């Protein structure tokens, strides 16, 4: 598997390369936005790990340019910018995931594995359930054709439900996949409530004693 790390902090870039190389990845490094964009265009990478605050061109603009050119290489943003609007901006411009520094290397690896399980040779498939549609290519959610604004966490939670439409998802699984296992279990119930308020009470069904699944009202 071949990765591109675009990071202007030399020590961070080389630390990532050492760790990823030890785990069997082939890693190239670029230290500026323009160099990263050129490498991503010309190289056959399985994923790109991308900083935001880069010399010459921001990471956001790198992703935005790649997506405009219909380059769907998976992009994982690694940034010290930790505000919810920063994360939303990163996802809205076309990144597939956003992690905040300081990084957990184990979590970086888990996200890479998840991203590389997705097909990358074509535009990502639009996910839908009833009138709810999620377009991963442009990071847009609509209800009945009208755009709906979701927080980064709400978006990731909705995407996970839509990618697992026929399964009951436990709180433990959702915490592991959406919150990286580092959150209060009550957060799942709270964010499911947010999705219901924004996208309809029937979107997510509570399966008592088991978890949640798409569709319908609460059942025993």
Task: Describe this structure as you would to a colleague.
It is globular and about 50 Å long. α2 packs parallel to α3 (59-68). It is 40% helix and 20% strand. It has a five-stranded parallel β-sheet with strand order 2-1-3-4-5, with helices on both faces. The protein has a four-stranded antiparallel β-sheet with strand order 6-7-8-9, with helices on one face. The model has no long low-confidence stretch (mean pLDDT 88). β4, α4 and β5 form a beta-alpha-beta unit. It has eight helices and eleven strands. The chain starts with a strand and ends in a 6-residue tail after the last strand.
CATH topology of the largest domain: Rossmann fold
Determine the oligomeric state from the structure: single chain
The CATH architecture of the largest domain would be 3-Layer(aba) Sandwich
Instruction: Tell me roughly what share of residues is in helical segments.
Output: 40-55%
């Amino acid at each position: 598997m071949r990765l591109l790390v675009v990071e202007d902090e030399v020590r961070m870039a080389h630390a990532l390369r050492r760790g990823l190389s030890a785990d069997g990845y082939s890693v190239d490094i670029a230290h500026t936005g323009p160099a990263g964009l050129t490498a991503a265009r010309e190289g056959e990478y399985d994923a790109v790990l991308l900083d935001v605050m880069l010399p010459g061109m921001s990471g956001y603009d790198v992703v935005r340019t790649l997506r405009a050119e219909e380059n769907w290489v998976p992009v994982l943003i690694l940034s010290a910018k930790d505000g919810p609007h920063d994360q939303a901006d990163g996802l809205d411009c076309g990144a597939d995931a956003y992690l905040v520094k300081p990084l957990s290397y184990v979590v970086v690896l888990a996200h890479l594995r998840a991203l590389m399980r997705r097909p990358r040779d074509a535009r990502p498939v639009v996910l839908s359930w009833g009138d709810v549609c999620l377009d991963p290519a442009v990071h847009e959610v609509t209800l009945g054709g009208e755009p709906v604004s979701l927080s980064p966490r709400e978006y990731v939670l909705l995407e996970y439900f839509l990618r697992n439409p026929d399964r009951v998802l436990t709180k433990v699984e959702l915490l592991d996949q959406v919150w990286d296992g580092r959150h209060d279990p009550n957060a799942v119930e709270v964010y499911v409530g947010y999705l219901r308020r924004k996208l309809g009470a029937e979107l997510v069904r509570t399966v008592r004693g088991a978890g949640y699944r798409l569709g319908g009202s609460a059942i025993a």
